[in-house]
Each structure stands twice: as structure tokens, then as C-alpha cells.
Amino acid sequence: MVRGRTWLIAILLLALVGRLVAAWAVQQKVGDQLCLIAGDAEGYWELARKMTAGQGFSLYDPPRHVHRMPGFTAVLALSMKLFGESPFAARCLLALIGTAACGAVYLLGRRLFDERIALIACGLTAISPVMTGFSVLLLSETLFALTLTLSLWCAANWLPAESREPKAESRYPILWPLLTGISIAIATYVRPSWMLAGPLLAVLVILLKRSRGKACLESAVMLLGLFGAMLPWAWRNHEVSGHWVFTTLWSGPSLYDGLNPDANGDSNMTFFDRDNLMAQMSEWDVDQHYKQAAWQYARQHPGRAVELSLLKLWRYWKPWPSAKEFGGFWRGLLVAAFFVPVCVLAARGGWQARKQPWVCFLTLGPIFYFAAIHAVFVGSLRYRLPAEYPLCVLAAVGVCSLLKNQPAVPQPSGSGPL
Question: What pTM does this model have?
């Protein structure tokens, strides 16, 4: 245990040093700009300014009140409160969050497998060039990776652990389902796309657990935790928009971004400013308008919609970055040199863990979950990145199997969840 703790501290220090160096390098690169790619970072920064000044949570003119989730903005606002409007200070804070995300991978790996798997998985995330670089960009990916992985860890305590520690679990039968729902909500406050993970997990639990009555009760508790934690945000959105919105009113334009006559799989939101619908419609009506227009386009052009889905999936799974700002042969090679082996090792690890569906759901599930979502919206490496964190746990299993040292995959028992 002491040796494992020493290795963990060393790995986390390596992760932190690498991310702090990246924070300095990125700051030198962008200079007065907030990010290499204009757009989201400026919006988050402006929202954080307003939050810090107590000016409300809205952007642009006419104002969009339900444009973003507040989680990442709150972190930037915290940085501004502590260190002023310093992008470099915010990057250093995000470096700490990126290091914490590596620690969350360790927790998940240790819960699903053992100390050895956990340390290898943590080490993979610590040295990942994309995870290191993205950690210090003023974008929500890394905070989302941390909260997403912690929600998976809560689910791991609820589901696979039941067969290993039945007595401990029976003392508080609803604790981990409740914490799972709340942790999914916390991740949803960073990225709205994770909210569907709650209902999906509930369905899987009811279908796969032997005790159907217990499964229904625990799933109901989990969903209660999820929607209860999201209720304050939905209430606030009702106050400013007149509608109960549990995420944002940006899904319509985002959907149209991926399904319109000019779509090519990449994001191009120029249509929003060109149409200028906010000048004559409410934020709710604009969202509904673009949703209807996107689905109408898909119905009228089913062949093109399928073609666009394939393009988006290619952009999502492509081993190297699509954005020209992150392009270049050597950068692409560096990214691919990490991602491709991780995928191969994760496939091998998935085979090793094939008798434990929950292990595969919690490690492989997120990357396919987001692939399905972004086959409809737009595809990019950045949308895949948060799901690579739990994927590294399965890749660590593959590493151990290659070393002829079989991982401690939990085996199902008569009292287990399956």
C-alpha cells in the first residue's frame, strides 16, 4: 500500500508538472488571445466576468440567458475571484483540475480492478499529450472529464462492487445510487450531453440486475438524485425563459449546425449570426426553430444525413486533430501515437473483462455514448477526449495482459448484480 501510494504521488506530480509547463507554453503561444481557436473560450470568459461582478448569467445582445451550463464558468469565476482576470492563473488552476482528473482515473481503476491497473491507467492519462494540452485551454473538456470520471466511480461503487462487498453495501442500500445521480448532475452542469447517461444507466440496471424490484428502487433513487440536483438550474431557466429547461437552449442551433444544407461534419455557426433570429424571436423559439429545421432537413435528405453522420464519426474517431490550429504532421503523429495504442490495448482489455458487462459499460460505454451523440451533432476530437479518461482503465488491463500478468477482473458470484 505504501509503495502504491508513492507511485501515485509520483505519477500525479508528473501530471501536474507537465500541465503547468503546458500552461506556460500555451500562454506564450496565444499572447493576448484567450485560446488558439476563437469562440467558446471567449464566451466562457465573458460569462465568468459577469458572474464575478454579479451581473447575471447571460451573453450577447439580445441576451441569451440559457446559452451555457454554469459549471465551467463557475471555475473561471473562482479563478478571477482569487487571482484577478489572469488567463495564466486560470490555466494553472485548470492544470490542477487536469491532475485531479488523472487521480479520478486511479480511483475508477482501483474500484473496478486493483492497485496495479489503477496506477497504469493513471500513468497513461498523466502522459497523454492531448489530455495534457487540453487541460490548460479555457474550455470545459478537462473539468468535464474529471466530473464524468467521478460519476463513473460512484456508479462503480454502486454496481460491480455489490458482489465483492455485500455487507458494506447492504448497510446503505441507496447511498451509492443517490450519489451516482448527483454526480451525473454535477457533470451535466459542465456539459449538458451527459444528462442522458442517467436514464440510460437506469434502463441497463433494470434489464441486467437479477433482483428486478431492487433494481427499480435503486434506479428510481439515482434518477431522483439526478433530477433533484438539476432542479435549481431548471427553476432558474424557467424564471428567465418561461420554460422548464434542464440543460440549455443551445441544442437546437447545435443540431442545425450538424444538419443543414452547408454542413460538412465540422462546426460552422455563421448561420446563427446571418439569420439573426434572436432579433425577432425568444431564445426558446429560436431553439425550437433550429431543431425543427434540422430534423426537416434530415427527413428531406436522408442520404445526405447518413453521409454527414459518417463524416462526423470520422472526425470523432480520427486519431489526429482536425482543427488546423492543432494540425501539422508531427503534432498529428504525436496524438495518434498515443490514441491508437490506447484503443488497441483497450480492445484487449475489453476481451479480458468480457464476463463483466458493468466493467465494459463504465469504461467503454462513454466513448461510444458520445460517438452516437456526435454522429448527429458535429464531430471532433475534443468531444471524444473526456471519454478517453475512463478508456485508459481498460487500456491498463490490456497492458497487464500483454505482460502475461492477468488483471484482477472481478468474477460474478451468486449474490452479484448480474
Answer: 0.92
